């Protein structure tokens, strides 16, 4: 984006009322967020993301973006279930949940791109508590996913449900990265934020759970698969001990939370927490430490922790802050969930054919194929077998295949989406 357009889009970002989610103004804001998100990714890949960072700080828009995340999350849990129960709600290919999930994914992706910078973290001010709570909820979902995946699911999920679950999974992984960037700034965080991470949510133990169960890694038909760059890849035997970016995020967050003097002073090293943290020793192999040498300090710390009884944390008198945005939205809309759902059925989620076509055209302009290919981290892969692909569906130009046989095999699943996009 040209600098003037980027500034105009940043200026236009504003908080949305819960009842307006899915409306025309909200959809327009989604386009703004998506354009800024793509601009941020391309700028970061070229090492030129300072302009976007400066604009978001100068116009105090980080709390606005965090507010949008919280609104979307509350809508999913409070309004959407009511919406689905209404008799006059006839979902068109589950349009509401997908557009809302996509909005959430765009915002968390944008935050992941810019939260690397200390100024962004500081500009969040009190809303950082809401973001910490949001990331904690997403990491809890990740941990739950890893234990649930071990039990065989007797009912195979439908294709659309699988896509929604995959989007939730990817959003949770982005939240992990954002949390790690927040822990990079522990010295700059307000005391209440540190207390919330260490004692209210006990994030060190939650991160140990992620190291132990590693939800972005699984065995399937005797092959190890890892989730990277938006897809599951089969890992060749020689690369199975290689640390992924997601593994690195967890270990770096643990380093930040356990080795900082301020964190050690505030964290409760009681019997349970100590036993959980000592589980990490089994994972600190020489191969892992070679890839992330800072883990030598973690190894020393855990060896010391194993043979000592740390002093209990000092009981300072602290007036703990509470997350402002979450509480404000719940208080403002409590008891109105059904009224909001009925309003949205009438004004947002019952579009005419003409309105759907108009919205499709707007999105087609936002998501140009050239732009999407520029954002792709790898060469395209076959939708069926996962190998590198050179052929594309000529009708919708959205799915890739390695051979005609794979395209024919996938046609029945692809046909509804192909018809819609074409």
TrEMBL record:
One Pfam family recorded for the sequence: zf-MYND
Subcellular location: Apical cell membrane; Cytoplasm, Cytoskeleton, Microtubule organizing center, Centrosome, Centriolar satellite; Dynein axonemal particle
Organism superkingdom: Eukaryota
Record's function text: Plays a role in axonemal structure organization and motility. Involved in axonemal pre-assembly of inner and outer dynein arms (IDA and ODA, respectively) for proper axoneme building for cilia motility. May act by indirectly regulating transcription of dynein proteins.
Keyword Zinc-finger: yes
UniProtKB keywords: Cell membrane, Cytoplasm, Cytoskeleton, Membrane, Metal-binding, Zinc, Zinc-finger
The family this protein is said to belong to: Belongs to the ZMYND10 family.
Ranges where the MYND-type domain occurs: 382-418
Protein name per the record: Zinc finger MYND domain-containing protein 10
Listed InterPro entries: ZMYND10, Znf_MYND
GO molecular function: zinc ion binding
Organism field: Callaeas wilsoni (North Island kokako)
Major place of residence: membrane
GO biological process: inner dynein arm assembly; motile cilium assembly; outer dynein arm assembly
GO cellular component, one term: apical plasma membrane
Keyword Protein biosynthesis found: no
